[in-house]
Amino acid sequence: MLVGLTGGIGSGKSLAGDFFKSKKIDVIDADDLAYIALAKEGKGYKNFLDVFGKTFLDENSKIDRKALREHIFKNPEMKNKLESIVHPIVQDGILDFINKSQSRYRIIIVPLIAETKSSSFYDRVLAIECKKEIQIERASKRDSSNEKQILKIIKSQASTEDRNKIANDVIKNNGTKEEFIKLLEDVHTKYLMLADND
């Protein structure tokens, strides 16, 4: 059984991923694959240079991701070009993960399932819901981003309503870590039962 785990910035996707890993469930994060794809030794680095040139390289010839992110927010055409480089590499990584996975079910963390209309790829979609002010608080602590930058990211992502529409399961992460883990425990138990009956 293949589960797509989605949610907005700062909603708790990484914490959920760590929880499922602790239960011996295979987990992969599409964002991690995208990050690796653009690393200096990554499969997309040369293609990136061919399209974007050296404008976004730092003094170590690494991609300045913050400058790049700010640029593509203002230039949708550049965003499409970047995605055309990164997405095929991410898809290959996901297919490789699925083929090698041995756990009773498997989880792919994908923030943009609703945006990419890819929910049919998964047997189930699990959405993490979170209040906007909590998202801002968590993301600013984690990324050292300011509120304006985080709000821009939230605005660019699907709404909570849109994510919940495509989800089979929705859990709220507005309380303590312990409360969130308890909800994840319930979902894990449910998924084990579903996987065993598959």
So what's the CATH class of the largest domain? Alpha Beta
Give the overall silhouette: globular
Topology as a string of helices (H) and strands (E): EHEHHHHEEHHHEH
C-alpha Rg (nearest Å): 17 Å
Output the CATH topology of the largest domain: Rossmann fold
Which sheet architecture does the biggest sheet show? Answer: 5 strands, parallel
Name the CATH superfamily assignment of the largest domain: P-loop containing nucleotide triphosphate hydrolases
Q: Tally the beta strands.
A: 5
Question: For the largest beta sheet, what order do the strands appear in spatially?
Answer: 2-3-1-4-5
Distance between the termini: 7 Å
Number of helices: 9
Provide the helix percentage. 55-70%
